Amino acid sequence: MKKEAISWRLIENAYPSREAVEKVLAGSKKLKIYLGVDPTGPHLHLGHATNLLLLRQLQDLGHKIIFLIGDFTGRIGDPTDKLAARQPLTEKQIKENFKTFKNQASKIIRFSGKNPAAVAFNSKWHRNMTFGKLIELAHHFTVQQMIERDMFQKRLKEEKPIGLHEFLYPLMQGYDSVALDVDMEIGGNDQTFNMLAGRTLVKIYRNREKFVLTTKLLVDPETGKKIMNKSEGGLINLDDEPGNMFGKVMALDDGVMFTLAALSTLIPDIEITKMRSETEKGTLNPKDAKLKIAHAVVSLYHSPAEAGKAQEQWIKTFSKRELPDEIEIKTVSPDAFSNGTTTMLVAIGAAKSNSEARRLIDQGAVKVDGRTVSDPNEKRKDGEVLKVGKHRFFKLRKK
Known about the structure:
By secondary structure, the chain is α/β, with parallel strands linked by helices. The chain has three domains: 8-215, Rossmann fold (3-Layer(aba) Sandwich), CATH 3.40.50; 242-319, Tyrosyl-Transfer RNA Synthetase; 328-398, RNA-binding S4 domain (Structural Genomics Hypothetical 15.5 Kd Protein In mrcA-pckA Intergenic Region, Chain A). Helix content is 44%, strand content 13%. It has 18 helices and eleven strands. It has helices at 18-26, 46-60, 91-98, 101-105, 123-126, 131-138, 143-147, 150-157, 164-180, 192-205, 242-251, 257-264, 269-281, 286-301, 304-319, 334-338, 341-347, 354-362; strands spanning 11-15, 32-37, 64-69, 118-121, 184-188, 211-215, 328-332, 366-368, 371-372, 385-388, 392-398. The protein has a six-stranded mixed beta sheet, sandwiched between helices. A hairpin with a 2-residue loop joins strand 8 and strand 9 (371-372). Helix 12 runs parallel beside helix 14 and helix 17 packs across helix 18.
């Protein structure tokens, strides 16, 4: 990799400018660069992958990488892109969520060997911050700056509340840059305001430049909605099993697959462009393009061998209409067999409640031997295989 080589296909904007960033990266100085992640859930997902892939490129260039866990800011909740205030998390919930973060991130960045990434926790400096220090930080920003943010304007129009604590989040994230004494921060484009707050504070407290790279978001090009969204489901987690990960990619809408390829895989630009062009011309089946992308995803986050197995299993199961080699066996009481499909779905854990079970049946998401179950009271038989949704299979056994 050339010294100045980073993938600009991942990047939305650079501050103060692309030219300034390219110049500093081409120089001899090794920069201290950080990415912050709040543990608001237990998984990193493909929406995080864009930042991690860019971080890996910067790590390969010899720069010092810091993976910051927002164990303190996560308790407040970043208001970015939220039309309602986040529910505050307890310290216990935060600790549970970040337990596996390092292992998940290590699928892309290195925490050992040559130029290992460091791990930091922002509770180290935020936990003991005085009220006087907080007022000092707040002095550098205005209410107008905060309230002009899009999500706050939407809430005002919809007469939804804005918590005072949500104004504090950009200050806290901004101060992370000062505490870490970094030269650069990377993060999603929706984090621009927060990262530029850090740029302001570094100029004030460190009297020097802080560079910012904002990355493109993994969004549906038609709707603009995030493809990976905790609150709306549909996450493809970095620690998903290979077969599950492959199946989830294949289940995505065709319209988002090339965005996913560009921002979450290592497929070369020229190959993505070729696949897109051939698909638009009708010379490449969208399913075949998606198979290549799903293979690339699983290869990166697991291995090419695992990707091959997952692809073979997917084709066998969903393309050829065959059952998977391994089906989860559920042993349930005789009552579940006599009380109908609704009760059975709850008994085997395929639905959390009767209402959810009925909803799955109404949506045509429950099948037996390729036949869609439409009657929630239809009784199940010992030895049947239930297919629930696109990826879940259960073989029923009577106690």
